[in-house]
Design goal:
Layout: H1 2-11, E1 28-30, E2 35-37, E3 44-49, H2 50-55, H3 61-65, E4 71-77, E5 82-87, E6 95-99, E7 102-103, E8 123-130, H4 134-137, E9 144-150, E10 157-170, E11 179-192, E12 196-207, E13 216-230, E14 233-247, E15 261-276, E16 281-299, E17 302-320, E18 325-339, E19 343-358, E20 364-375, E21 379-391, E22 396-407, H5 411-415, E23 421-422, E24 430-442, E25 446-458, E26 461-465, E27 472-476, E28 480-493, E29 500-514, E30 521-522, E31 529-540, E32 544-555, E33 560-571, E34 575-582, E35 601-611
Parallel strand pairs: 6-9, 23-27
Antiparallel strand pairs: 1-2, 3-8, 4-5, 6-7, 8-9, 10-11, 10-35, 11-12, 12-13, 13-14, 14-15, 15-16, 16-17, 17-18, 18-19, 19-20, 20-21, 21-22, 22-24, 24-25, 25-28, 26-27, 26-30, 28-29, 29-31, 31-32, 32-33, 33-34, 34-35
Length: about 600
């Protein structure tokens, strides 16, 4: 109890590494069609900027996502080894992941959706859209969407970030031959010209594993370029590759997977352009391709090999009138998999969508729209929705939104055939409807949101079995209802001094209700979140900074834990030296399955950047 009390007090000083100069209120939410400033959007959206990311005691994307409100980041290993992400009590397959608005979610399994080759220093901001998002992004945005927006190069520079860490403890009781450690490096370069810009990053992380057979190696390569053809026409392209190798002891099929291993490789490429064809008409086409290889060795006699490819083409547009803005477009997504235990499978998804947004009504902002989807496996589906906002004062808005959404089962849900998991080719898509009401406050120093939502999912898919042993099987288990309260409060404390402060407090409560078969033992459902609390205060000077972050999670099973992380940094002209202490109270906790996460952990890093 004492250390939790100390931890809550420590929440107050989440001090930051460098001042965040981004005016979040003016950030344009990346929804491909309509251009909506953050302070005028009627949805529950949280934004984490590049400067805020740099301030946090986190070394990779997974650790950053674990500090967001309403986001349940369940890692099977630290340092970005493997993790699942869900929003507001949904499953890891119900959250759509995007990169600059392009879908990168994995059609094989949601377990690989975060296998992203994006280094933290290449991220401009992270946008989390909570609630039914199918009207905006189409199928599989059932409980929300996570969009990672990369930076635009503004100057020529080189940079390097090297770091190493340890618990200064021996590995588990069967591995007393070495201290548990990790080490990593990130190298980057940017080239700026008036008409074209480029950036290239390479990242390597290695760890010997905190337990038997949990060593990992993660390599990333990321390149992005763009050219300004003229003031009204731009072209952007990017390419990335990630190699992720790890011991998978206890990751999916404990206790039999003690010696299992997995290697996941992902290549993603995208080309898009933006064209302001007239004062009123905007057009943006995009194509992208994601290729993923997954080799999972349960034991030498049971090896699963999966190769999947997804090609997407989009056409997004916007037309402005004196009544409001119209957004419309088309999308096609072609999914293929070649697997030794799922066979050769393919399906196509095609969508057409339209939206209308107006601010012409007094004190009202209204958006209505629909997404019409056709899937070659499941046929037609329509996702209507609306967002409504009424300004009570210039700073205070009451908002309401509602919409429907759908998740198409993954290839794993449908066809996997392993000793521990059996798919079900008769599965139906999950259909959901969600509504939310909230109050939003926004002024120069405060951004706040407090709301209540209700969600109902029909044909909910879960992996279950009816005895303590035997394989899990995918089934449609009837209805899943969720009622929840979510709050978020960000306060930039006014100060005329060189020392700056920013406070971020969030609390979320979820009350799930399931209708499922009697005696069904669920693989995932029992560990969804019930209570989640986070408190962040940021403060910095030009030459030093410190940060402390606490988060409290309590799951439906009543297991709970509180974690406290600390960062201290000293900043020179081109160099920043930082030291992290994560889980400083050495809490024992589990995020997924039966995999214990590391205790107290220390990291020392050096960041260098030079530009002209």
């Amino acid at each position: 109890m004492l250390k939790h009390t100390i931890g809550l007090l420590a929440l107050a000083p989440l001090l930051a590494l460098g001042q965040d100069t981004t005016n979040i209120s003016e950030v344009i939410i990346n929804q491909n069609r309509l251009q909506i400033p953050f302070h005028k959007d009627n949805r529950n959206i949280e934004i984490l900027t590049a400067e805020q990311i740099k301030q946090l005691p986190a070394r990779n994307l997974n650790e950053v996502l674990g500090l967001l409100n309403g986001v349940d980041l369940r890692q099977r290993g630290p340092f970005g080894t493997q993790a699942d992400i869900s929003i507001d009590g949904g499953s890891f397959d119900q959250t759509l992941v995007l990169l600059n608005g392009a879908k990168v979610s994995d059609p094989q399994t949601g377990h690989h959706s975060l296998n992203l080759p994006i280094p933290l220093d290449a991220i401009e901001r992270i946008e989390v859209l909570r609630g039914a998002a199918a009207r905006i992004y189409g199928a599989n945005a059932l409980t929300g969407a996570l969009n990672i927006v990369t930076k635009t190069v503004e100057k020529t520079s080189i940079q390097a970030n090297v770091y190493t860490g340890s618990s200064f403890k021996n590995r588990d009781e069967e591995q007393k031959d070495g201290i548990y450690y990790m080490a990593g490096t990130q190298l980057g370069a940017s080239w700026y010209k008036e008409k074209h810009q480029h950036q290239l990053f390479y990242n390597l992380d290695k760890s010997n594993g905190q337990r038997y057979n949990t060593a990992s190696e993660n390599q990333k390569v990321f390149y992005q370029g763009n050219v300004d053809l003229d003031e009204k026409n731009q072209v952007e392209w990017l390419g990335s590759y990630i190699y992720n190798s790890f011991g998978a002891n206890g990751f999916y099929a404990a206790p039999g997977d003690r010696d299992s291993k997995e290697v996941v490789e992902t290549v993603f490429a995208s080309v898009s352009s933006k064209h302001q064809l007239s004062e009123r008409f905007y057009l943006s086409p995009r194509i992208n391709n994601r290729y993923n290889e997954d080799v999972y060795e349960y034991n030498p006699n049971a090896i699963s090999r999966h190769f999947n490819n997804t090609f997407s083409a989009e056409l997004n547009s916007r037309y402005s009138t004196r009544f409001g803005d119209f957004g419309f477009g088309l999308e096609s997504r072609l999914e293929r998999i070649n697997s030794n235990n799922m066979g050769n499978r393919e399906r196509n998804n095609h969508g057409a969508y339209t939206e209308f947004r107006t601010e012409r009504l007094e004190n009202i902002i209204l958006t209505v729209g629909a997404y019409l989807n056709y899937n070659t496996q499941y046929g037609w589906q329509l996702y209507p929705g609306f967002d409504f906002g009424y300004k009570l004062t210039p700073q205070l808005t009451i908002v309401a939104n509602a919409g429907s959404s759908q998740r198409i089962p993954t290839f794993t849900d449908l066809y996997i055939n392993q000793a521990t998991s059996i798919g079900n080719s008769s599965l139906l898509p999950e259909d959901a409807w969600q509504a939310e009401g909230a109050l939003k406050f926004n002024d120069e120093n405060i951004i706040a949101h407090a709301g209540f939502f209700y969600r109902k999912i029909n044909n909910f898919v879960d992996w279950v079995r009816y005895a303590a042993t035997g394989p899990f099987r995918a089934e449609n288990l009837g209805e899943n209802e969720m009622r929840g309260v979510n709050t978020n409060f960000v306060y930039s404390i006014p100060s005329d001094n060189l020392l700056k402060f920013k406070l971020n407090i969030g609390y979320n409560y979820l009350n799930p209700s399931f209708k499922s078969a009697e005696n069904a033992i669920s693989r995932y459902r029992i560990e969804s979140l019930k209570h989640q609390a986070k408190l962040i205060l940021m403060a910095n000077r030009s030459d030093w900074s410190a940060s402390v972050a606490n988060r409290f999670n309590q799951r439906v099973s009543n297991t709970s834990y509180m974690l406290t992380d600390l960062r201290i940094a000293y900043n020179l002209a081109n160099v920043s030296i930082y030291a992290d202490a994560q889980n400083i109270f050495d809490v024992t906790y589990i995020e997924s399955g039966a995999i214990p996460m590391p205790g107290r952990w220390y990291t020392l890093g050096l960041r260098f950047q030079a530009s002209r």
